[in-house]
Amino acid sequence: MLTKRIVPCLDIKNGRTVKGVNFVDLRDAGDPVVMAKQYAELGADELVFLDIAATLENRKTMHEMVLKVAAQVNIPFTVGGGISSIEDVDALLHCGADKVSINSSAVKRPALINELSEKFGSQCVVVAIDAKQIEGDWYVHLAGGTIPTEIKLFDWAKEVEERGAGEILFTSMNHDGTKAGFANEALGKLSGVVNIPIIASGGAGTIQHFADAFIKGKADAALAASVFHFGEIPVLELKKELKKQGIPVRL
Amino acid sequence: MDLKIVNYGAGNIKSIQFAFQRLGYDAVLSHNPDDIIKADKVIFPGVGEASSAMKMLKESGLDALIPELKQPVLGICLGMQLMCNHTEEGDTKGLEIFNTNVKRFSNNVKVPQMGWNTVANLKSDLFKNISEGDYMYLVHSFYAENCEQSIATSNYDIEYASALENENFFGVQFHPEKSSTVGAQLIQNFLDI
């Protein structure tokens, strides 16, 4: 049986892991390669690396980091941040990344999703969507959630699937950093709207929040950062508890 | 050991190289038929779309070479699918090494299947020291139908062949290079065959 995935996310700046609380106020949480290796050994199913600086000079540092991770880590990982062309993706896949995640660049030029899925296959194209619920409706936001758009979440999700996305990483801006649980209602609706896997992101605070994201939110994977990085929820303990609740996980 | 990875422009080959490297082996990329024929073992990778991958294989003449190889050959993911008779993806004729066909998962399930699934009905030395119910990492929208040459099955939508064997040819739908210690064991088993 296909299992639900637990995905630690490592925000990267200048080759180091950081975690934003509501996307600001960064705290240092360690060396990404060491952390990635540890997570793989502790039972994480997949990893996401987000280059939050994503400047040109940072790109080389990021490629070096991806190469090191690919050499040492034996589970799949996704790289995101500042990716806007076929060349960007080609370089990252050549360094050993399994998937790439695109966000603002896909909203600005949706054809990028088609181009990437045709060239590299849908399986390596993750479209990340940051959205915020405003007066009942969910709107897509850009640039780490700072710039609002008039695009509605569910319309955009449907479009990215049609254009060839292999997976959606959905972050609720209302929940991110709150540690009060994932946006389960929106997640559940997303799974009804599209037929590709959904990674839930934003709001993890307790083990029960993960269970709720899988059961109520029907998510295929759940992503979190600080609860893992600072040892508040050990990955193995989380997975054991999920299994007790009848949720299929890899142990 | 002379290990060659068939390089025809399809897929994330770096991860496969790194996986062999972690076991202390150097797997070299090659599209040169003379070098591939001489290798002790051959890895046939593949990620992407079937008809364009087959087109690239044909352009380099490797479509004729691969079925003739006598040493152990391991097809991974799309590599395995291309070794079957036919795939629905792009209505593509395969290399006819494995006597089965490749079909698309129905929309009763999310497509692609992405993540860790169990392997069962393990039959071959390729699964030595790997247990029924161990997990492998898979990413795919198309699956090989279960058949007599299945050496492992998985369940998603239906029960399908997640590994195949025919004489010196092996194929795995999952990514052993990304399947943690269990995947590393499978690669070691292939090296030991």
UniProtKB/TrEMBL annotation, chain A:
Keywords carried by this UniProt record: Amino-acid biosynthesis, Cytoplasm, Histidine biosynthesis, Lyase
EC number, as in UniProt: 4.3.2.10
Entries under InterPro entries matching the protein: Aldolase_TIM (IPR013785), His_biosynth (IPR006062), HisF (IPR004651), IGPS_HisA/HisF (IPR050064), RibuloseP-bd_barrel (IPR011060)
Active site: D11, D130
Reaction(s) catalysed by this chain's protein: 5-[(5-phospho-1-deoxy-D-ribulos-1-ylimino)methylamino]-1-(5-phospho-beta-D-ribosyl)imidazole-4-carboxamide + L-glutamine = D-erythro-1-(imidazol-4-yl)glycerol 3-phosphate + 5-amino-1-(5-phospho-beta-D-ribosyl)imidazole-4-carboxamide + L-glutamate + H(+)
Pathway noted in the entry: Amino-acid biosynthesis; L-histidine biosynthesis; L-histidine from 5-phospho-alpha-D-ribose 1-diphosphate: step 5/9
Localisation: Cytoplasm
Similarity comment: family membership: Belongs to the HisA/HisF family.
Function as written in the Swiss-Prot or TrEMBL entry: IGPS catalyzes the conversion of PRFAR and glutamine to IGP, AICAR and glutamate. The HisF subunit catalyzes the cyclization activity that produces IGP and AICAR from PRFAR using the ammonia provided by the HisH subunit.
HAMAP family membership: HisF
Complex formation: Heterodimer of HisH and HisF.
Name of the protein in its database record: Imidazole glycerol phosphate synthase subunit HisF
Species of the source: Winogradskyella haliclonae
Lineage, opening ranks: Bacteria, Pseudomonadati, Bacteroidota, Flavobacteriia, Flavobacteriales
Gene: hisF
Automatic annotation (TrEMBL), chain B:
Pathway: Amino-acid biosynthesis; L-histidine biosynthesis; L-histidine from 5-phospho-alpha-D-ribose 1-diphosphate: step 5/9
InterPro entries named among the record's database cross-references: Class_I_gatase-like (IPR029062), GATASE (IPR017926), Imidazole-glycPsynth_HisH (IPR010139)
Compartment list: Cytoplasm
Domain of life: Bacteria
Active site, per annotation: C77 (nucleophile), H175, E177
Entry EC no(s): 4.3.2.10, 3.5.1.2
Keyword annotations: Amino-acid biosynthesis, Cytoplasm, Glutamine amidotransferase, Histidine biosynthesis, Hydrolase, Lyase
Pfam family membership, one: GATase
Reaction(s) the record says it catalyses: L-glutamine + H2O = L-glutamate + NH4(+); 5-[(5-phospho-1-deoxy-D-ribulos-1-ylimino)methylamino]-1-(5-phospho-beta-D-ribosyl)imidazole-4-carboxamide + L-glutamine = D-erythro-1-(imidazol-4-yl)glycerol 3-phosphate + 5-amino-1-(5-phospho-beta-D-ribosyl)imidazole-4-carboxamide + L-glutamate + H(+)
Annotated ranges, domain Glutamine amidotransferase: 5-191
NCBIfam families: IMP_synth_hisH
Subunit text: Heterodimer of HisH and HisF.
Function: IGPS catalyzes the conversion of PRFAR and glutamine to IGP, AICAR and glutamate. The HisH subunit catalyzes the hydrolysis of glutamine to glutamate and ammonia as part of the synthesis of IGP and AICAR. The resulting ammonia molecule is channeled to the active site of HisF.
Name recorded for this polypeptide: Imidazole glycerol phosphate synthase subunit HisH
